[in-house]
Specification:
2 domains; 7-stranded mixed sheet; 3-stranded antiparallel sheet; globular; alpha/beta; Aspartate Aminotransferase, domain 1; about 40% helix; about 375 residues; Aspartate Aminotransferase, domain 2
Length: about 375
């Protein structure tokens, strides 16, 4: 039985373009980019060409891109190093209650070390209120870290409005764009973003590869201490093949391709909603289906059936879906995102699944998911009724 993969918010399969680039560079380009002889200079040239491709994708300058091991390192660097560098200016940080653990855990760490953190609430669509943000800002605020797209329900945060608000405030603005990069239009200059995190494996690129956009002029020490790589901003020999693979993934994401994917993915969401309704499945959507929600994520409350049971039954039938963030997949604790949206005692918290689409998702995959989900729900409901 072949598996139908519908968990692209967790990770994506590597693309042929990326695999070809990785294979080529691993075979031919093993030189250390910090060395001065020919192989090193070749590696350095590929490194800088890749940096340029990636910088252009968010309207950044080349030297504002720092390569990292992925989204978690980029998030940790942005939060922890900003706090350390700016603590003389204040010890207040603002984030949201629905951030990824790569943001929340550093925030909890900082709270134990004398910092004050405000966790903005969200409404039932997973959206923050700009009024809440304005009320939380004070003279002690040194950092605002708000994700671009939520990884569990797909809510799109008002990044441009936040940037406009903060451009006249001392606080630096960081956004975790791991779920947004490659799907939404990102322009760090237009949106007045100071720090931005991404990860290559969310766009059919290699794992353990990401970057941190760091606006020119922002000063803090390297998160990884050692050599002087990345202009002394991130120690460690650069993974040049991985970086080239990341750039190859970025090159496939042309404006035309991104527009096509958005149309396809929004169509898949409507297809699932309509299909489940036609099969009389008792469900609801967590969050929104409108343009304030990312096209690639659909979070469904399957009423009366636990997340664990639904996920396992779909897995047995060959469908890979998630109960929420893949980073907490081994944890039976309820989703902190759904708790923030609906409260802890709401049945949605323990009866919801996440479906997410990617480059290789087909209409047949989606139709199969609808049919299989309907059969599972019918079978489980009959069993309960005995």
């Amino acid at each position: 039985m072949s598996e139908v993969y519908l968990d692209n918010a967790a990770t994506t399969p590597i693309s042929d373009e990326v695999l070809t680039e990785l294979t080529d560079k691993y075979k031919k380009l093993f030189g250390n980019a910090s060395t001065l002889y020919g192989l090193g200079r070749q590696a350095k040239a590929v490194l800088e060409d890749s940096r340029h491709v990636i910088a252009q994708s968010i309207n950044a300058d080349d030297d504002e891109i720092v390569f990292t091991s992925g989204g978690s390192e980029s998030d940790n660097t942005a939060v922890l190093r900003t706090a350390e560098a700016r603590k003389a200016l204040g010890r207040h940080i603002i984030t949201t209650a629905v951030e990824h653990e790569a943001i929340l855990k550093p925030m909890h760490y900082l709270e134990k070390h004398g910092f004050r953190v405000t966790y903005l609430p969200v409404d039932e669509n997973g959206q923050i209120s700009m009024d809440d943000l304005k009320d939380a800002l004070d003279d002690d605020t040194i950092l605002v870290s708000i994700m671009s797209v939520n990884n569990e329900v797909g809510s799109i945060m008002p990044i441009h409005e936040i940037g406009e608000l903060l451009k006249v405030h001392q606080a630096w603005f960081h956004t975790d764009a791991v779920q947004a990069y490659g799907l939404t239009d990102i322009d760090v200059k237009r949106d007045h973003i100071d720090l931005l995190s991404t990860s290559a494996h969310k766009i059919n690129g290699p794992k353990m590869m990401g970057f941190l956009y760091r606006k020119d002029g922002l000063k803090f020490t390297s998160f990884v201490l050692g050599g002087d790589q990345e202009e002394k901003r991130r120690a460690g020999t650069e993974n040049v093949p991985g970086i080239a693979g990341f750039a190859a993934a970025v090159k496939t994401l042309t404006p035309t391709e991104k527009a096509k994917r958005e149309t396809r993915f929004r169509g898949f969401k409507q297809q699932i909603v309509a299909g489940l309704k036609a099969h009389k499945v008792d469900f609801d959507v967590n969050g929104s289906l409108d343009t304030n929600s990312s096209p690639h994520v659909l979070n469904l409350w399957i009423k009366g059936i636990s997340t664990y049971v639904m996920q396992n039954n779909l897995d047995l039938d060959g469908y890979a879906i998630s109960g929420g963030s893949a980073c907490t997949a081994g944890n039976l604790e309820p989703s902190h995102v759904l708790i923030a949206m609906y409260a802890k005692d709401n049945p949605r918290v323990s009866e919801s699944i996440r479906v997410s689409f990617g480059r290789y998702t087909t209409e047949a995959d989606v139709n199969g998911f609808i049919e299989t989900t309907a059969k599972i729900v019918e079978r489980l409901n009959k069993r309960r009724a005995r």
